[in-house]
Amino acid sequence: MTQVPLEHVLFVSAGLFLLGLLGVIVRRNLLIIYMSLELMLNAANLALVAFSRYANDLNGQVMVFFIITVAAAEVAVGLALIVALYRKRQTAHVEDLTTMRS
Amino acid sequence: MQAALFYIFSALTLLCALLVVINPFSRNPVTSAMFLVLTIASLAGIFILLQAFFLAAVQVLVYAGAVMVLFLFVIMLLDLKDEERRRIRTFGVVTGLISVGAIAAIFARTFLASGLRISPPAISQAGATQPLGELLFSRYLLPFEIVSVLLLVAMVGAILLSKRELE
Fold this sequence. Notes:
Chain A is an all-alpha fold.
């Protein structure tokens, strides 16, 4: 990594974030929306690791550690919610969930 | 050599992420999950190139291991057969592309305005796992304990949510 400038790493991170955002907006399956959320979290992780490396400061890596932990907890609760929803409504599609649209 | 590896892993990451979101061959969630595993693995490669060895290991263990297994369990449990015959709505694609384009423009402006041309400094903390651990258990001890409580709460919540109707 002696020649790679910081902005190239940030460019990859931005691209990953944008792909995740596109997935959240375009896809209609709750599970795939969830995977796209994971992509966005990973993009943030990549940016933090890159800054931590280029600033020679380990605090960024500790932040990434916490983000990974919170993401794991979030996935556990979120998937339990999806399973509970499926049990009640027999669907995992956001287009079928229009109770609050009136 | 390392720069070439970085660009290879970056291209692999972005390609697999694209295939998670928009896969022209299959709309099956299992395919998306598999490409998400590939994305995470190549991201771990980038982490190694950025000297974050511990985080690369955690990334593979927690994400590619635990989280994706959870995803696959839920996909198998729900048995989403009707996904493939649903169409993606054009309106959703258009609004999605507009908002993604807007944020991409903001990113591009920021990149151009910041003028970052930093090349990495020489490695002062080789390996960096031991300093990371020391930091985690001295300066970040309280957040560490709070996160452990958060994990406990998430576990209790997940068990409670996935139980049958509580009467």
